[in-house]
């Protein structure tokens, strides 16, 4: 009897749906679990992401080198695999696809697959830093060691750094790129930092009306991010715990009653 007609042989083969379900459970455990294997995997993902961000920052310098396309396409493969794995690990893939972080990653993937056709949008790759910050995987070590109080501050720092390099990339692409190379990128970064900090040395300015509008937007967003970071550093620490009565989110770590409605709270120990 052929193997395909043997009932015993058919019963021993896992159904495709079972294989996919097992793969999704395995990926969910790796991305969101707390086992030693999951922790090693998550640490590896963070290291690869940080190296990828370093490549994105250095792209203006590396674009004309022979190894650029090899590194670019290798990162594209890694990012595509990461996106696919995260999609399989999610409980609702369609809902996951509508997340802003996923859309940002897809745009970044497109710039990696077509690095010369989409060269003017290459500065958007730095948004990967914001994306991995929102995914939360880089904050797992803080939570694991009871340092979650620094998570909001860390997110604010990541947001500021992301904006600085996105703005630098946009300014470099729009105003400094033609024949300027690495020195042009440094000029763009120097101008961005001087503008965001409102130092305004004035030795480098952006020409024309669009340059002035770009400077205005850079200052407004940069100041807002600086203020947000200062608030998180200097304000008293509070925990995130939704009040069952009025849904107030932030409370003092030792609060017994909600300061908005007086409901008796049962806030878990933040060091657990």
Walk me through the structure:
- This protein is mainly alpha-helical and 272 residues long.
- Helices cover 64% and strands 1% of the residues.
- The chain has 11 helices and 2 strands, in the order H-H-H-H-H-H-H-H-H-H-H-E-E.
- It has helices spanning 7-12, 16-32, 36-62, 68-89, 93-97, 100-113, 127-135, 140-144, 151-176, 181-196, 208-234, and strands at residues 239-240, 250-251.
- Strands 1-2 form a two-stranded antiparallel ribbon.
- The longest helix has 27 residues, at 36-62.
- The N and C termini lie far apart (61 Å).
- The relative contact order is 0.07.
- The mean pLDDT is 79.
Number of helical segments with 4 or more residues: 11
Distance between the termini: 61 Å
Percent helix range = 55-70%
Spans where pLDDT lies below 50 across 5 or more residues: none
């Amino acid at each position: 009897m052929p193997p395909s007609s043997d009932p015993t042989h058919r019963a021993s083969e896992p159904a495709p749906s079972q294989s996919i379900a097992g793969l999704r459970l395995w990926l969910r455990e790796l991305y969101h679990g707390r086992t030693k294997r999951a922790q090693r995997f998550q640490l590896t993902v963070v290291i690869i992401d940080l190296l990828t961000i370093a490549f994105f920052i250095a792209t203006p310098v590396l674009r004309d080198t022979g190894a650029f396309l090899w590194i670019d396409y290798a990162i594209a493969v890694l990012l595509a695999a990461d996106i696919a794995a995260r999609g399989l690990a999610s409980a609702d893939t369609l809902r996951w696809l509508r997340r802003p972080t996923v859309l940002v990653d897809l745009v970044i993937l497109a710039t990696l697959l077509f690095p010369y056709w989409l060269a003017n949008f290459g500065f958007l790759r730095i948004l990967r830093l914001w994306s991995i910050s929102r995914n939360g995987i880089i904050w797992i070590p803080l939570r694991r060691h009871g340092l979650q109080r620094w998570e909001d501050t860390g997110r604010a720092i990541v947001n500021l750094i992301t904006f600085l390099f996105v703005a630098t990339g946009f300014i470099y692409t729009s105003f400094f790129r033609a024949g300027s190379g690495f020195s042009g990128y440094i000029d763009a970064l120097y101008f961005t930092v001087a503008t965001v900090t409102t130092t305004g040395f004035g030795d480098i300015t952006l020409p024309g009306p669009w340059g002035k509008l770009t400077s205005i937007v850079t200052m407004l967003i940069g100041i807002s991010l600086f203020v947000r970071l200062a608030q998180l550093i200097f304000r008293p620490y509070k925990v995130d715990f939704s009040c069952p009565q009025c849904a107030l989110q932030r409370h003092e770590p030792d609060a017994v009653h909600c300061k908005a409605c007086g409901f008796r709270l049962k806030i878990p120990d933040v060091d657990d």
